[in-house]
Amino acid sequence: MALRYITAETDRRMTCLVIGRAGIGKTSLLRTIPESEEVFTISAEAGLLCVRDMVESGRVQGAEVTGTADVIECLDNLRFNPKWRDRYTWVFIDSLTEISSVCYEEMKARYPDRRDSFNMWDAYAGIMNRIIKSFRDLKPYNVVFTCLAAMEFDDGKKPIVSPDVQLKSLKQRLTSFFDEVFYMTDVPAEGGEMRRMFITQPFLAFPGKDRSGRLELHEEPDLARVKAKILGAWRAHPAGVVRAWSLRGRRRERRQTRWDADAHNQRSWIRICHIRYLTGHL
Ligand SMILES: Nc1ncnc2c1ncn2[C@@H]1O[C@H](COP(=O)(O)OP(=O)(O)O)[C@@H](O)[C@H]1O
Ligand SMILES: [Mg+2]
Over 50: is that where the pLDDT of 247 sits? Predict the structure, then answer.
C-alpha cells in the first residue's frame, strides 16, 4: 500500500465539538455561519424550532435522521455526490447525543439477549467511532458536532462535565477525537445580564480544547469568528492591527497599550465572574 506522506499543505477547515446544556444555544450556532457559505444540517433531535426562519428561507438545509443508516447515507452523499460537494461548505451535526442514543436503541434491538451485551456494546462502539471519525475527516467541509453536557463525579468524587453519549469509554475518549472542543455556557456580563461564551480550554470541571493555540480561554460563540481565529485569518482584532502600526509612531503605541489593557481587564473580569458563578453551580 502506498504511504501517504505528511505534507506542509495547510488545512483550511475547522472541525469542532460543541458541548453544552439543553437550551444554551448549540443549534442556534447555525446563525453564526457566514451567509455566503452553505451548510448541510444533520438533525437527529426535533430541535430546529429555534432556526425555523432559516429553514423556511432555505438557509438551513439538510436531513432529519431517525437511524444510523440515514446518517451514513448523508455521509456517503457528502463524500461522493458532486452536487453536494459543490454546494456545501459546512456540515452541522445536531446532536451526537441523539445519534448515540438512536445507535444504542438499534444495537439493543439487534442483540436482545442480555448475554450478548458485550457484542452489543462492541457493535455500538464500532458504529459510533466510524460515524464520528468519518465526519471529522470529511474534507473539504467544516464540520461542527453538538453534544449535550452531562454532570458526573470522578474517582475523587469531584464533579466533572462530560459529553452526554452512551458508553463510558466513548464518553472519555470523545474529546480526544477533536482538535477543537468548546464548552458553551453563560457567564454574567457587565450590567448583570448573562452572556453566552465558548470555553476553549479545560477549565474547572469543564471540557475544552484548542489545538490551534490561537483562542482565548473565553470566546464569543460565533463559528465564523472562531474559525477565522484558528486559521490565523482573524483581522478584526484592533490590538492585532495596531500592534503592526505601533512601530511607526508613539501615539499609536499609546493607543495600543490602552486597548490591550482594556481587553486584558475585560478578560480577567469575565474570568473572575465566571469562576465565582460556575463554582456556585458545581
Ligand atoms: N446567542 C443567543 N442570544 C440570545 N438567544 C439565544 C442565543 N442562542 C440561542 N438563543 C435562544 O435560546 C433558545 C435555545 O436555543 P437552542 O439553539 O435551541 O439551544 P440548544 O440547541 O443548545 O438546546 C432559543 O430560543 C434561542 O433563540
Ligand atoms: Mg438544539
Answer: no
Using the atom order of ligand 1, give the atom closest to the CA of residue 49: 18
- Identity of residue 197: M
Residue 7's pLDDT is what? 59
**Is residue 5 helix, strand or coil?**
coil
Interior CA angle at 269 toward 264 and 270, to 5°?
Answer: 100
* Model pTM score: 0.83
Ligand 1: lining residues by beta carbon, under 6 Å: 20, 22-28, 47, 50, 196
**Rounded Cα distance, 245 and 22, in Å:** 44
Segment among 131-135, 171-175, 233-237 with least mean pLDDT: 233-237
Task: Kindly report the CATH number that applies to the domain delimited by 15-234.
Answer: 3.40.50.300
More confident site: 261 or 226: 226
Domain ranges of the chain: 15-234, 235-282
Q: Which ligand is nearest to the CA of 50?
A: 1
DSSP secondary structure, 122-143, as one string: HHHHHHHHHHHHHHHT-TTSEE
SS3 content of the chain, % helix, strand, coil (to 5): 45, 20, 35
Q: What is the mean pLDDT of residues 54-74?
A: 91
For residue 45, the model assigns a pLDDT of 77
Judged by its nearest atom, the ligand closest to the C-alpha of residue 198 is 1
